[in-house]
Amino acid sequence: MTRAERAQQLVRELPEIYPDAHCELDFKTPLQLLVATILSAQCTDKRVNMVTPALFRTYRSAKDFAAADPAQLEKAIQSTGFFRNKAKSIRAAAAAIEQEHDGKVPRTMAALNALPGVGRKTANVVLGNAFQIDEGIVVDTHVARLSQRLGLTKQTDAVKIEDDLMKLIPRPHWTNWSHWLIWHGRRRCFARKPDCRNCEVLHLCPSGPRFIRRGEARDSG
After folding, report:
1. Of the residues 32, 55, 95, 141, which has the fewest C-beta atoms closer than 10 A?
2. Catalytic annotation on 134?
3. Residue in 26, 45, 64, 140 annotated catalytic
4. Total-model pTM
């Protein structure tokens, strides 16, 4: 099976396995998603979702975040880790949104990438999930790990992995592709001891049989 054939089959099977797959960061507006995504760096979505309800009650607009007292904002997001840098990025991005985009989160990759503290991954999250624009593929640790294990890329750099995937995955599925792999990575294809024996796509995975043979997969049960 070629790389392209495997990708096509995965696009057919993964939505049947994870029909409810979606972004697991809680948000109601593009700004909330942008902030939550910044907070999610080196932090679980579960922890971010514990922090954001109170945060979003206090700061309701880009203007509010831009004008936030640094110490108060840092305290509010402290449990997400790296809180000083995250607070700085949030305030700077919000200020740019307020000054350059009339307080509204921009809807293009170029404009989002130009915001302080916003890289391509964050921009892809916002475009795909807040605006339903398939501009690229989010490559987080799960997507990188599974794309390599599934034999869809040999790259280790996120940008190069994304480039490989964009050539294989039809554009209308770019946003969902990340959701499917993230859900599979959290529920089955763990970083350590993946559950290969119970994996729904083992028949499409060149790595699974090797993990089982070497004792690197979970025991059945």
Report:
1. 141
2. no
3. 140
4. 0.94
